[in-house]
Design a protein that fits this description.
Elements lengths: L7 E3 L20 H15 L2 E7 L8 E8 L6 H18 L12 H4 L14 H5 L26 H17 L5 E6 L2 E6 L4 E2 H6 L3 H8 L4 H8 L4 E4 L2 E4 L14 H10 L6 H5 L22
Antiparallel strand pairs: 1-3, 2-3, 4-5, 6-8, 7-8
Function: Adenosyl-L-methionine (AdoMet)-dependent tRNA (uracil-O(2)-)-methyltransferase.
Keywords: Cytoplasm, Metal-binding, Methyltransferase, S-adenosyl-L-methionine, Transferase, tRNA processing, Zinc, Zinc-finger
EC number: 2.1.1.211
Amino acid sequence: RSSYSCCYFVLPCCFFDFHGKYSRRQSKKTQYREYLDFVAQVGFVCGFHVEEDCLRIPSTKRVSFIGKSRSYPAAERALIDKQITQFINSRRTCAAAACDRRVGFNHEDHCGGGLCKEAGSEPAEDETETAGTIWMPGFQPREKVEQVRNCASLPRDFVDEVVLNVANLLLNAAPQKSCSDKQGGNMNTWNQGESLSLREVAEHLDKETLKKLKSEYGGLQTLLKNNHQVFEVLNGRVHIRDWRKEKAPSKTKPEVKRRLSAEAFKTRLCWFFFHHPDGCSLPSEACPYAHGTEELR
């Protein structure tokens, strides 16, 4: 629809229609094949000679469609555009209850020629009048540059402040709990603090902080999970991570992963060494993080 000279390539993957998830209408075909036929149909309705190809890629979804030429002369653009408008609006109708299989609607009987309509229905006047001016009322394309909203773009000072506040909240939530282990015959006590639900943690944060987190995908939970060194989030509850309980790297781990782990060793400062009242629970040589700037790699 962009222009008569436009060509296209599409690799169908997720099963979506114009207005939501694609609804199956034929049980004799696989869901994938039926969806491919629908995507090809869209190309035909838009006036393309649609070619199908299978890509040599390591994926189960590797059938693609190419539209390199039109099936109508340029002079008929306005007529085809009306047809496209009717098709888009008819797909919205098909998404409604009137086209539900439960009421016996037969998609094949009403989609001849690429136009899916209810029996006896005619396109509304506004459907043809808006052809070429409004492609789809209410449609809002996403921005050219998609905003990163996984808490990774939040200011570092803000993230550090939230991490410190939540950690102190967990440490002070209950009387000090001892996690003891024997090292050389001595008892070493390290405070792991209490665990709280995400809701309880959120209730202790100020409104301005919550407002910033609300605009991010996953909000508080995402921020805490991003700070894997300090926190562990399990079943909606937040814990301070005790690195003594972490499993040692497996000797059977793939060589690539073992090499990456080794390369990341001591490349970041240890949060516990600088901020936890008892320091780090691990000795310097066993901690994967640097106990001081002099250890940084």
